[in-house]
Amino acid sequence: MGLVLAWEAASRLGLWRPWVFPSPLAIAKSFASGVADWTIPLGILTSMRRLLVGYLLSLVGGVALGLALARSRTLRESIGTVVTGLQALPSICWLPMALLWFGLSETAILFVVIAGSLLAITVATEAGVRNVPPLYMRAARTMGARGSTLYLRVMLPAALPAILSGMRLGWTFAWRSLMAGELLFVSGGLGQLLATGRELGDMSRVMAVMVAIVTLGLVTEVLFFQRLEARVRDVWGTDRS
Amino acid sequence: MTAALQDMSLSIEDREFVCLVGPSGCGKTTLLNLVAGLEKPDRGEVLVDGTRVRGPGPDRGVMFQDAALFPWLSVAENVAFGLKELRVPRAEREARVRKYLSLVNMQNFAKAWVHELSGGMRQRVALARALALEPKILLMDEPFGALDPKSRDSLQAEIVDIWVETHKTIMFVTHDMAEAVRLGSRVIVLRARPARVASDVDVEALLPQPRHVDQPEVAELAARLKAGLDETGEHEAIDGDGDGDERPEAEIAGGDRARGVAHWLGLHL
Asked: Within an 8 Å CB–CB cutoff, is residue B119 touching chain A?
């Protein structure tokens, strides 16, 4: 709060030109007008819908692929290197491919989101599953567990802490990919609002949209991931403090 | 597994509490895993009530040195794990969880998480989890090996009580001779390199339960068995009732192959 006040004071003293770095008040006004004319709420809605759909598909696909990789040596030897390599590819590099395959469509955006986050979840799931103590599986088998229930009732829950950190990383990657995609290819959403702000040379509008993006990230982080991780720490007793 | 079991035949009777004891590398854990169905013999077979063991099953409850409780489940959910797997109806499941948690004096910890329990408490829950499936046979692989003396002492007393009350057949692996003599109705001492039976003793005939580790007779018998194991000579047969009808001798030979291989193993329970 003090920081915001100092920033406002410095802006009023005219230490820099307002169109280069606007004051907090100007950003707040711009934000309010964005909310009033519905551009910011609609942008948030469009972006969040894409993010959720893409991320959920990534989550299901990433966990399944990670599980398969952890369990199958053949699969690891055949596509393990490809997965590691592609995971290091910045997700926006998928955009040209997506555009050629799907055109300027919703599918192309989803593709970029999934390409950006799926493999991070895959890699974390694979590591998590491979670190599950074999004794858990042996114990479960002596109690009659076999086949798919071994995976669902033992392997996945045992790997949950690792999968969760992959989910968190995947969410961040999905969010970044989406913003990059929306910025480069005009189709609604918060990314497009940023691009519009730039075209109008309206710095306070750009920064108002950035505030919305940061807030969304913070809210999902605090409301969802931090709660989930705290829950896992409580249950597993892994709180080191 | 470092031990190779070869040419061995072992019969365990109903309601026996058999302690397999011996140095590391004598194949005692391999033997237990074969009965559990967690390892497969290359040759030979394990028969339980005349049926060949093809894999793990709820008719044989297993306890490991590590309790191997699932940290994402509460104590009660851990005990209920196998019951859910067997589709035991909810009411029956809850009743059994209560019954077996009480049996091991853990009824007040049903809602606790695994990380909140001490090592001894975890083994109690692991015991309840194995018993909840009401197996005929309980297989225990050094379950008290990592516990402090006090917890070990009370768990030893409880497992004997449970054996007396429930008439389970128990196969108990340990490297602690005094523990074997204190617990088992029958103690089979295994020797390593080459792995074979050093002695097979009917302890119940010599020293009926209740007995305690600090009892002089227990210490004395343990010392005698240990002495027999340390000698390099022939196996010592200690006959419980002194009328010369010692048990059929089991032969375990080999031990020179790197991987655990059971060449011939006929085990009738």
From this structure: no
| pLDDT confidence bin for B230, thresholds 50/70/90 | low
Does the model's ipTM exceed the 0.90 cut? Answer: no
pLDDT at B209 over 80: no
- Is the Cβ pair A143, B60 closer than 8 Å? no
Which pair of tokens denotes residue A221? Answer: 């982080």
Give the domain A25-236 fold.
Answer: MetI-like fold (1.10.3720)
| Cα nearest neighbour of A238 on chain B | B115
pLDDT at B5: 64
Domains of chain B, earliest start first: 3-59+136-268 (3.40.50.300), 69-134 (no CATH)
Return d(Cα B85, Cα B87) in angstroms, integer.
5
- How far is the C-alpha of B108 from the C-alpha of B102, rounded, in Å? 8
Q: Is the Cβ pair B60, A144 closer than 8 Å? A: no
Size of interface A-B (CB pairs under 8 A): 69
Phi and psi at residue B96, to the nearest 5°: -70, -40
pLDDT in tens, A79-88: 888 888 888 8
